[in-house]
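Hi support team,

I'm filing this because I wasn't sure whether my run with P-hydroxybenzoic acid finished correctly. The job status page said complete, but I'd like someone to confirm that the output block is well-formed before I use it downstream. Pasting the exact inputs I used:
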Amino acid sequence: MTSTFGRRRAALALSICLSLSSAAGAQTAPAKIKVGFMLPYSGTYAALGTAIENGFRLQVQEQGGRFGGREVEYVRVDDESDPSKAVDNVGKLIKRDQVDVIVGTVHSGVAMAMARAAKESGTLLVIPNAGADAITGPMCAPNIFRTSFSNWQPAYTMGTVVGQRGHRKVVTVTWKYAAGDESVKGFAEGLQKSGGEVVKDLTVPFPNAEFQALLTEIAAAKPDAVYAFFAGAGAVKFVKDYAAAGLGKTIPLYGPGFLTDGTLEAQGESAQGMFTTLHYADALGTPRDDAFRLAYAKTWKLQPDVYAVQGYDAAQALAVGFKAVGGDASKRRELIAAMEAARIDSPRGAFVFSKAHNPVQDVYLRRVDGNVNKSQGVAIKALADPARGCRMPAAS
Ligand code: PHB
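And here is everything the job wrote out:
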């Protein structure tokens, strides 16, 4: 019979053994780099979250599964695009999982909470979609980068285009939250510059997709054009409802490219001929984009969209940062400096980060043709977000 003492001794010997072997293991295989995805995997933006993750994973695969020589591992949290759960969700990645970097998210309201948590904890955050202007404005920080856009960028561009096309009185329609509000504001600024004005601003709560009352109001207002901010499943529904109400024939519908990106198969006939503005277009025909699209289609058996590109570029930016420090995440200042100096060879066209860490990028005018958002050329070249209110502190 083994005594309690004997059992304790055996347990102690085993635990010493285990810790010695893990110490030896640590010498041969450096710890993995832990990436925490905080993305919507359910709800109206679910497809966007999946595309971002797919794009990110594809780029990591192309890097041999490593950043700066260290293997990359993932943990995931479904943020449900719900700002009320954002603090808890981001806390799980920072405290429980102790990730090296957070990648997320889609929804501006959730992303604002993530940016606050990243600022407080110092955790590196790369935003692969959410356009909240404040994140690269008053909230800008050395450890926060965005590989997508600010809400102002595509919206301002569309405002200038709609004005140039001769539309004077425009109704805007959007979900009532930061991204919708900022999109409409940026659009109004561009429109005003090119001679038009917003005459009515209609909203529905996020993620409501009951649009009949709004469509009735639009029909009654008889504007020259409509500008809409919706995305994901909500964009599919809005564009279909707009066409079904017969409005498409008399009042042209415009939007930032989210209105028709990753949605065309579902929108079908209802989206044909629509003009949108975005920092990406399908079938750009450049060798870089062709290679990306082929690799993405082969890997995921899906066509990529702007969200996939933004996820891919989040991984490209991190690959540059980690390479510069040989995978040593504690060399924070050098890692950030390398990302700041990076020229990202994006499928959208190469871009650099502004001082506020937002892409300086071309914004395309696109037209829906079948299942593609076909580029009609660059509407505004190398557009930088104004980054109003950003005073970037030095990296520590
Ligand atoms: C946002 O909330 O910032 C947002 C969401 C979906 C998009 C674009 C922006 O497609």
